[in-house]
Design goal:
The structure holds two protein chains of two kinds. By secondary structure, chain A is of the alpha+beta class. Chain A is built from four helices and twelve strands. Chain A is globular. Classes of the chains: A alpha+beta, B alpha+beta.
Chain lengths: 204, 314
Amino acid sequence: MECVFGLVGDGFAIVAADTSAVHSILVHKNNEDKIMVLDSHKLIAASGEPGDRVQFTEYVQKNVSLYQFRNGIPLTTAAAANFTRGELATALRKNPYSVNILMAGYDKEAGASLYYIDYIATLHKVDKGAFGYGSYFSLSTMDRHYRSDMSVEEAIELVDKCILEIRSRLVIAPPNFVIKIVDKDGAREHAWRQSVQDVTTASL
Amino acid sequence: AETLQIVVSSSPVPSHANDKESYLWRSHTGGFGTTLESRGSCKRNQGIENQKKSERKVSSAVSNMSRRYDSRTTIFSPEGRLYQVEYAMEAIGNAGSAIGILAKDGVVLIGEKKVTSKLLQTSTSAEKMYKIDDHVACAVAGIMSDANILINTARVQAQRYTFMYQEPMPVEQLVQSLCDTKQGYTQFGGLRPFGVSFLFAGWDKNHGFQLYMSDPSGNYGGWKAAAVGANNQAAQSILKQDYKDDASREEVVELALKVLSKTMDSTSLTSEKLELAEVFLTPSGSVQYHVHSPESLTKLLVKHGVTQPAAETS
């Protein structure tokens, strides 16, 4: 089951997602990046139906780019989150997308922010959020250890605690995770946490 | 010897199948006409022409050509003009003027009311100034019924943006969106353009206070000071001389009243003939659109000494 979670720290927001692409009992790959860089200062961590996930996040990304080209200014994180929610809401009663999203962004005026957007177009601005079976463990762990204005090191420690909890307690736990961060300097990949790597025949 | 002149051109062959197009023959004056002139009629016409020359108006050559090209709004004339758009701007040139000026701490819009009857219910109807959204207002010059349609369109576009993004629509985007609508009426649909020019005044967090002017063609520009409607060129030239950057709202109101008093046709300036509105920020940071009451206007007119008829200008 796909695990996505994230939290807001002091001037930054961090999101982590598992990287396994699964189809019934088969693991297609375990380095699938589910955190899309929306623009220079925004990230979307998405989980759900693989086709919908890619289709919808790319659709949002291209619309965000179009806005910037047309108007010369980027969307704020709040505006992008509301736009995304609006698209899910419009499609909901016709042809719904099965995608859950955590949108993290940094704006000069608003600072770092995290938005929880689920597949039926719920929108919440949150300090910490999670999706999937892993959320049972990561939310509880974050509730226990989270403080507002954590430093990057403290936040990474908390993320690692969550990953450890998921790995030890979830029956089909994803082996690998990717962690991405967004702050005033932009959105970027921060680290991977891998317990299984793709093995090629040459190395056997 | 007689010569036969063959003119080679890239324009399509005229035919009666295409509406009002007809064969054009070169006339003796060098222009084109729908009748072939023989030498006899040529000489006869020449005599009449010389007689009429003194009475002929300068624009007749233009109007002869334009009559073929202005029946449909969405085609160019041979000189590359869109006559319907130009006629729309003519209509606005006869309407009550409106002036907008940017101040350091706000935008001032002033308009000349053409409908001044004691019977008019001034408290419920506005003639020149309209609020589009909480942070954008506009002044109007031209055909009022056309203006109402566009104002409603602008209001819907602003709300649609806020519905999608949960933020106020940036002023330039609103103006651009409305102008895209206006442009459509100059290119397809076979409908005439809107006979309205707008002055948009607003505030957003990207560019602060802004003033935009748009016309029936769908063109728009950002201005520090602009005028539309009757005598707008005179107003614009006075503004060019007297406008100062970073003036306060009070100074800008004074400038607006002075310019309007000089360019208005009527002999005296009273509060019934004017509408004055300001867009500014309250101390708490929210955008305020305030239309002056007649009493407040009268006080301002007296304060700046513009109630007397403009006796000093000849």
